[in-house]
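Notes from hallway chat w/ T.B., transcribed later so I don't forget. T.B. wanted the structure written out for a chain they're using in a teaching module, and asked if we could keep both sequence and structure tokens in one place. Agreed to drop them here.
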Amino acid sequence: MGFQQGLSGLNVSSKNLDVIGNNVANAQTVGFKGSRGEFADIYAATFGTAANVAGIGAKVTNIAQQFAQGNLTTTNNPLDIAISGNGFFRMQDTTGSISYTRNGQFQLNKDGYIVNNGQYLTGWPVDQSSGLVLAGSNPLPIQLQFSNIGAQETGGSGVSGAGLDLGVNLNAQDKVINDVSNANPGPAFSYTDPTTYNYSTSATVYDSLGVAHTQTMYFRKQDPGATVPGPGAVNTWDVYYSVDGKPVNLDGTLADPTGVPPVPLNALVGTLSFDGNGRYVDYTSNIAAAPVAPELPISANAGDDWLYVQTGALNNGSNGLSFQLYFDKSTQFGSPYNVNSLAQDGYTDGILTGISVSKEGVVQGRYSNGETRDVAQVVLSTFTNPQGLQPVGDNRWVESYSSGQPLVNAPGTGSTGLLQSATLEDANVDLTSELVNLITAQRNYQANAQTIKAQDTIMQTLINIR
């Protein structure tokens, strides 16, 4: 027995107490991962056999981090985000340095960035023109726009199907009002007389300034025996239009709805046709092919399915209205009239009012105009050996040679877990186990101190021999 063994035992016991104490101190730290001390014995270099070689103590070989999942606790903050499964949030500081964390206590700073302890959360940006996530690109700090997002006129999104899309069922059993096949064509259509049309429905559309306008469509059934456009079409309906209560003319002007006659001779009139099975066949109108808004030019062939209001006709300084109409979801069955779908792509100006994060990491802003906009997708990083990550404090780690290079994926892909918004991951420290370990480590320290005391007694005996 020597002082060397007892001293080394005190050192490793002290280090073990440090590790346990650090675990206990961080039991309430969000995203904290506990550690354990790992130790090994020490033997002096010798050619002796194992039977007659005594060890010279113990040493610390590693402080191993334990990356087991912590419990999840719900909160009321949508920017509290927990990872359920593997992976780390990828963080970036103002210098571009990258670190990783499991602490999901995020906030928005004054510039709209999602941050944690001064570090920026990174993700793949969203292309605002197409709305697609630029997956695989270089992750960038995620920023939301606090300022006004601006208005978009109906038909101005530039994507396929932009404009007004209306799906209605027009009752096939309704009476014919426009009987064009005989000498009694029926009452003249009037915007102000509901007896001159079968149905009407309205939609909100937006001009280039984001000003809302009420567009009303009036459906008037024609004689089924009339000659109608479109192959296979046997049933047709006239469609008249008004904007803010004023009839729309085919040249894009607006008329007085109370004028005489009630319907101007150049009123915009469309023809909606269906086949014998009640399915949509075609829509055409008498709209003038020109002029149109410069930003949305239409040709003579494509012009008959547009609604156009001239610049200045709305008298508000906007570019008027110019967008395509879609009726392909409409039907004519023998069931009551109803509106099945109504969609348009315009909106007024708005500011950010809320934020949400999906389980796949898509960050979405909600705006005061009712619009939602995907901003970015949070990325998660995984490592071949996460225990090789180098802790740097503030619940963060950095890449090291032992950890290997990070693998960056979207949540739920590869080996990464999913995200849970309004949730935090607790420390994975089991206080009961740690307190038991603390008692054991304390006894080990006392035992090693006892070996030094015993060696001191033996040395004292030897010194006192005469």
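Follow-up for T.B.: The chain has three domains: 3-68+429-463, 72-149+351-425, 164-344. Might be a good example for the class.
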